[in-house]
Specification:
The structure is a single chain. The chain is of the alpha+beta class and 96 residues long. The protein has one domain. The chain is built from one helix and six strands, in the order ββββββα. The protein has a six-stranded antiparallel β-sheet, covered by helices on one side. The longest helix is centred in the last third of the chain and has 16 residues. The termini are far apart.
Length: 96
Amino acid sequence: MKAELLFRERIIYDDGAILEMTIWRVPDRVPPSRHFLKYALFYGLPGERLVLYDNERGKGDHRHYGAREETYQFVSIERLVADFKRDVEQLRGEAI
């Protein structure tokens, strides 16, 4: 089985900010993640990451918020997207 793109969305805001979400179903787990997904949900300005939820080999599911990096408890795709959007809304001061 090859990786299957489940979801991709990209928004460029009037102020130049970028929101990009990509979620793949992969044939093998990305250790130490326990699910079969590979994802990157990004929000920032050109050259500046403000929020990023991703999972990478060796780190697993984690969240970058400003300068902080912390473990993220993955529950479901729906929860992942909702948590990410909540962070972006807080930074933007508006609903997305």
